[in-house]
TrEMBL record, chains A, B:
Residue stretches in coiled coil: none
UniProt keyword DNA-binding present: no
Protein name: 6-acetamido-3-oxohexanoate:acetyl-CoA CoA transferase alpha subunit
Top-level taxon in the UniProt lineage: Bacteria
Keyword Transmembrane helix: no
Family assignment from sequence similarity: Belongs to the 3-oxoacid CoA-transferase subunit A family.
Entry's Gene Ontology molecular function annotations: CoA-transferase activity
Lineage of the species this protein comes from: Bacteria, Pseudomonadati, Pseudomonadota, Alphaproteobacteria, Rhodobacterales
Species in which this protein is naturally found: Celeribacter persicus
Keywords: Transferase
SMART domains found in the cross-reference section: CoA_trans (SM00882)
UniProtKB/TrEMBL annotation, chains C, D:
Name assigned to this protein: 3-oxoacid CoA-transferase subunit B
Coiled coil: none
UniProt keyword Transferase present: yes
Organism: Celeribacter persicus
One annotated GO molecular function: CoA-transferase activity
InterPro entries to which the protein is assigned, alphabetical: 3-oxoacid_CoA-transf_B, CoA_trans_fam_I, NagB/RpiA_transferase-like
Pfam annotation, one family: CoA_trans
PANTHER family for this protein: KETOACID-COENZYME A TRANSFERASE, SUCCINYL-COA:3-KETOACID COENZYME A TRANSFERASE SUBUNIT B-RELATED
Amino acid sequence: MSLPDKTIAMEEAIAAIPDGATVMVGGFGVPGTPFTLIRELVRQGKRNLTLIKNDANEAGMGIDHLIMAGQVRKLIVTHLGLNGNAIAAMNEGRIEVEFCAQGILAERIRAGGAGLQAILTDIGLDTELAAGKQVVEMDGKRLLVEPAIRADVALIHADCADPSGNLTYLATARNFNPPMAMAAARVLVEAERLVPLGDISPDAVETPGVFVDHVCPLIQISEEYGVVRR
Amino acid sequence: MSLPDKTIAMEEAIAAIPDGATVMVGGFGVPGTPFTLIRELVRQGKRNLTLIKNDANEAGMGIDHLIMAGQVRKLIVTHLGLNGNAIAAMNEGRIEVEFCAQGILAERIRAGGAGLQAILTDIGLDTELAAGKQVVEMDGKRLLVEPAIRADVALIHADCADPSGNLTYLATARNFNPPMAMAAARVLVEAERLVPLGDISPDAVETPGVFVDHVCPLIQISEEYGVVRR
Amino acid sequence: MSDGNFQDPRIRMVARAAREIAPGMVVNLGIGLPTKVIDHLSGDFPVCLHTENGMAGIGPTLPYEKADRNLIDAGGAYVSPIPGSSYFDSTVSFALVRSGRLDLTMLGAFEVAENGDLANWKIPGKFSPGAGGAIELAQKARRVVVLTTHTDRKGNPKLLRHCTLPLTAKGHVARIFTDLAVVDVTPRGFQLVELAGGITAREVQEATGATLLLPTGNIPTF
Amino acid sequence: MSDGNFQDPRIRMVARAAREIAPGMVVNLGIGLPTKVIDHLSGDFPVCLHTENGMAGIGPTLPYEKADRNLIDAGGAYVSPIPGSSYFDSTVSFALVRSGRLDLTMLGAFEVAENGDLANWKIPGKFSPGAGGAIELAQKARRVVVLTTHTDRKGNPKLLRHCTLPLTAKGHVARIFTDLAVVDVTPRGFQLVELAGGITAREVQEATGATLLLPTGNIPTF
């Protein structure tokens, strides 16, 4: 019994993403954003993408590059208040934006990764986020049906990976990465460190390699990953 | 900013459980079963309990003591094939038993801990486990409504705890413990080791202390926790 | 606070709000004004601060030179851990919120209604960046309080009979801290609880878009 | 296998089933007969074995003296880790199953029907210990195969036109390995694929409670 080596060149991993793909992107602000995978997606010019992400990063960072390059058709996010470019693109109709309550976006992604079809929740009832959503009555209470979300691809940033795809994260760089790493047909990971198989204790694994398709070790950590001085 | 000390004597923690309580009990087979908390529940003679657990342990072990002492009104489990006493008690009508598919029991508990009202799933459709359950149609597909489960009390076994209730688990002793540790009004933990606040790295915490109410360090590890020779 | 009258009214209201935090609470401080409450808590005050991007047990904010690039709060400030801190993913973070483990949240507001309705995320046609985690915080924290100036920049009241903007959550606000007063939401409407030093009940009523119920007897000041 | 005829029929069927596992697969071996498949995999065979109580990357089973009291498989056997193993809780374990990350599961059976229906968890009035994880494994693994004796202890067929017992899952079984044959479930019913050495197609048909489709040409043996 032995486990596979899933390391791959980043160029090759991104090349397999078709135009029109639905792509989950980890991160909340800077921490956990897969900046290098995003840069490669920009470089390869994939178009007509639907991105699922907590936020739209800030102007000049992360998925803003994809938005500004006109590669994004639709964004599913919880807020994009820190990125004026994204707000302008939305207001001018250059991108379609779907807003989701933050924890419900996380749960819908997790439900996709867990092979559930939907969750029932009272979050957003009596707000305009409930508009158009299916309502179910359970024990006399009205609940919203929030369907599971899956993507064609998930772009994940990990601190540490082994060749079989076991991952660990650091501090608040975890955020949306673990649920997204379970919820896509192809899960692509950029890892700050690649360690030999067996170096991550089985108890310490945060995303089991079974969920991961490709591991791309980062050769360098660009300034995008650094501390932002506002 | 500092965190509370939640350590407590086991006798006191169990004394707060009323007769008739619904109690989640961690464990899958021996690993992760809170044998010492169960023993104290037996000793204090709490009655009319509803237990939620993956399995019924084996004859002479774990919750079998509660069943044999007549303290259990109802069991919600995924299987009890390894405990002839439990099967007999079920067949003779001394306990009521509700069966649930294993992963769906885990998800229903998790949904309770996550403040969701229910999940929608196709698991168990076309089987007798679907009998009597609410069905919802979504995108033309029939799905079962599986309601979230919460309990009055959860009994958790951890390898390591700090005084604020941060927990880690070992190997397959994790199983149902993390979701149950989020899904009860009072979460009681027995821990093989109690370490000082700050000794568990914030990245290594598997159950955050925020979810935990009481930590009972184990003074000794009884033979029930050992290797079973069949 | 005896010297309350001489303080900046915003600092005074933040300091008053900080006293709302009882020892042992689990608290989420919303982005903006509420985050400043942290400056009024002593370093060893027994409180577990939560941030929805995935941390319980927030310690002091760090200057850029000392910041950990992987450790921010939901507002983007660089924070630090304390003994017993834990990190978790976004599903666990909101599990904590929705399942009732959050004792208190302090949020900003565009409008608060006398029935406890809150609007703080969208001004149609002007400002619609998405609600982030505000909807769940406002709907599910055990106690929801609001920290806001009593009126907007143009002097219009923010405490109203009915909200006019899209709601964040319906009927969950329990108390409002402003630069003028502390106001409770009661079944009978807004109840004046405390006055900022030097402010009269009449001035508060004039700055409020709904009827204020007055307490019998002296009104405490802060 | 040239010496197949001389082996214990059960060992032979387990060995044949083991060859169903392709390199790189993620596989769950059900409790009972399927677990024995592990004995027919070489120590370095590239496969990720999953057990639903919370582990991926199962290594060899350990004797009691060497067992770790915290490390069992779902059947209660003491197992060991390999480089790259991971442990996780029950929600993650079944997330893996339900979301299609399990390439193959091998399950035992009381009955299998020619349309792929499986019954393996309950005999009303006699045996109803609960299904454990069997329903999700049988419904959601990408490929579901069954490992069973061709007939029960009384000689009654287990491969039937219709299941008579409560179903575990409807229409998901793709292939059946027995002591007599390898049989595929096809849109037209049971298709004989291979014969155990020394067994004739006629003998398999006589032990089967539904019509067997025969291949044209020679039938391979195992």
